[in-house]
Write a structure and sequence with these properties.
- The chain has about 150 residues and is of the alpha+beta class.
- It has 4 helices and 6 strands.
- A hairpin with a 5-residue loop joins strand 1 and strand 2.
- Helix 1 packs across helix 4.
- The longest helix has 17 residues.
- The radius of gyration is 19 Å and the shape is globular.
- The two termini are about 35 Å apart.
- About 15% of the residues are buried.
Length: about 150
């Protein structure tokens, strides 16, 4: 008689019966898209930083450069910018997506393809504990003293 129990709320936000399952203490997962080399902070560089490196190295075609610029602009509009970037990131923080930011993570596919095109090794890592959180919004966290899963 094995199985999984699903518990539903007795009432929704407006007091009406709800059919949404209740989540008890499930930890948020955090996701990072990063390359296999470290940057000036001593940690693996994130996907946007890696694309900026390709741009500064002058290896992007005009089409690839425009693709990156358009996506970078789109993310700037769609996501809040953590305040530690305003001072040049003196905190030495890195960012992780919240696992609930699925649409934003899916939108990274063209940037991952850009890294692959230029043979930049990268991976996606997930963890429950990304480090000491110093910033949080709906889509991401900024952390210091990051903890990377093995």
């Amino acid at each position: 008689m094995g199985g999984q129990w699903v518990i539903f709320a007795l009432s929704g936000r407006d007091g009406a019966p709800s059919d949404e399952p209740i989540s008890f203490g499930r930890a948020m997962r955090y996701v990072r898209f990063q390359v296999m080399y470290s940057g000036k902070l001593g940690y693996p560089v994130g996907i946007f930083g890696a694309c900026h490196h390709l741009r500064r190295a002058g290896v992007l075609s005009p089409e690839d450069d425009q693709l990156f610029a358009d996506l970078d602009d789109w993310f700037e509009r769609e996501m809040p910018s953590p305040p530690f970037y305003a001072d040049g990131n003196q905190a030495k923080a890195i960012t992780w997506f919240k696992s609930t930011a699925e649409a934003l993570m899916l939108a990274l596919a063209p940037l991952r393809a850009l890294l692959e095109k230029h043979r930049v090794e990268h991976r996606i890592i997930e963890t429950d504990y990304p480090g000491t959180i110093i910033y949080e919004d709906e889509f991401q966290v900024g952390v210091v003293e990051p903890r990377f899963p093995a």
